[in-house]
Design goal:
Elements lengths: L1 H23 L5 H26 L6 H14 L4 H34 L2 H12 L1 H9 L8 H17 L4 H13 L3 H14 L4 H12 L4 H15 L6 H13 L3 H15 L6 H14 L9 E8 L10 E8 L8 E6 L5 E6 L15 E9 L11 E4 L3 E2 L4 E5 L1 E2 L1
Parallel strand pairs: 1-8
Antiparallel strand pairs: 1-4, 2-3, 2-5, 5-6, 5-7, 6-9
Helix pairs in contact: 1-4, 2-3, 5-7, 7-8, 8-9, 8-10, 9-10, 10-11, 10-12, 11-12, 12-13, 13-14
């Protein structure tokens, strides 16, 4: 804003100088000078004519005519003092009003029609960008009011105009567009962010979410590929499974939707307020498949860590269900991100290892839980583990991870 006022002052000063420049020069009126030059030329020409007329005998009183010519020339020369005084008066009379007029019109018209209040608000909004961005990125980002969303959009577009290589800025702009259901803007912004930072999980997830809302099959296929990459990573965001479940349900792949929602339940545990909502979603998908809700058997396992366990956050959690005699070969097994503890996971027939031997066929069983630190299920050296007592199907299962191979 300071640069604007400095530039405006410079422009006003230049304008005043341009108007006043012709009157600043210290010389007589140019018209008077031209007249003097013309009179001198006329005097010389007339003298030459008188010489020729005298030689031809046409003029007898040459000297008197020359005197008269000199007198008429002197009478036509203006007073230099008067010319200088008139010039000085005319210069001040024009420069002062011109200066006042330029300054008054310039700033008066700007404050009247120049949207100075909007410019000041724009500057304030741009300065408030970090605070608005942090509020959007926080879990309470949806609490942004409509005015705050508009301010954030304006500030982001201003920043991206000057910093087009800011991947985070494009990501934020895409999230705002998603909140406003502006699919085209969301896809365009997320695409720019993905082009600048293709390895960022946040960018990949946001881009997949935007593409999932598109009506174009090509966009939706690209979204599934992005989600597929995210699922293969060590830590998978809960929103990835939510998008996969939504997509599966929309494609009427209800079995896949149930599986993804079941994984989400395992990740958050029954103490989370979203658990019941996911249960209703699973029941609805099962109804769509023609299944009777509640007849399928499942195993719910509550897992906790002993105090001495120090697990790598990048490790995986392997949960396996075995026959009651503790046979090494599991009947069902599942792998999860480590997450936080205590937590609850649920296994059902979808986790069975063999097609002809379902988890629901067991009357009694035991559960083993292991923290896999290297990603290879065949190696166990240094891994922490725990196992349950033999229990009957339908009974709760608790496992404490407290031992190490």
């Amino acid at each position: 804003m300071t640069l604007f006022w400095i530039a405006s002052v410079i422009l006003v000063v230049v304008s005043v100088l341009v108007i006043s420049l012709p009157f600043i020069k210290k010389k007589s009126n140019i018209d008077d000078e031209l007249r003097d030059e013309l009179n001198k030329a006329f005097y010389k020409d007339r003298l030459e004519e008188l010489e020729e007329e005298t030689d031809e005998g046409l003029v007898e009183n040459q000297q008197e005519l020359i005197e008269d010519l000199k007198q008429s020339l002197l009478d036509d020369i203006p007073s230099s003092q008067k010319v200088q005084q008139d010039s000085s008066i005319s210069t001040l009379a024009i420069m002062i009003p011109a200066t006042l007029l330029v300054v008054g019109l310039s700033y008066g018209l700007y404050f009247k029609f120049g949207a100075s209040e909007d410019v000041m608000k724009w500057q304030q909004v741009s300065a408030n960008l970090p605070a608005l961005s942090q509020k959007l990125m926080s879990p309470e980002g949806a609490a942004l009011s409509d005015d705050e969303m508009q301010d954030l959009t304006l500030a982001l577009r201003t920043r991206l105009h000057y910093q087009p290589d800011d991947a985070t800025g494009w990501l934020l702009l895409g999230r705002i567009a998603l909140a406003n259901r502006d699919v085209d803007t969301a896809i365009g912004s997320m695409n720019k962010a993905y082009g600048l930072d293709p390895e960022s999980t946040d960018v990949m997830l946001g881009y997949a979410q935007a593409l999932m809302l598109s009506q174009d099959d090509v966009d939706q296929d690209k979204a599934r590929r992005l989600l597929g990459k995210l699922v293969q990573q060590d830590y998978v965001d809960l929103r990835v499974f939510s998008l996969l479940a939504f997509d599966a349900y929309e494609r009427r792949d209800y079995a896949a939707a149930v599986r993804y929602w079941g994984i989400m339940q395992q990740m958050i545990g029954p103490q989370d307020s979203r658990y019941e909502m996911l249960t209703r979603s699973i029941e609805n998908a099962q109804k769509q498949m023609g299944q009777q809700v509640g007849t399928g058997k499942s195993v719910s396992v509550e897992i906790s860590l002993a105090d001495q366990v120090n697990a790598d956050p990048n490790s995986s959690l392997i949960v396996s269900v075995h026959t009651a005699d503790g046979a090494p070969m599991p009947v069902a097994a599942a792998r999860y991100p480590l997450g936080s503890f205590p937590r609850t996971v649920v296994l059902d027939d979808g986790n069975s290892m063999l097609q002809d031997r379902k988890l629901s066929s067991l009357d009694t069983f035991m559960v083993r839980v292991r923290i896999d630190s290297d990603g290879n299920v065949a190696t166990k050296q240094g891994d922490w583990f725990g196992e349950s007592e033999a229990v009957r199907m339908g009974e709760p299962v608790e496992v404490m991870i407290d031992s190490q191979y």
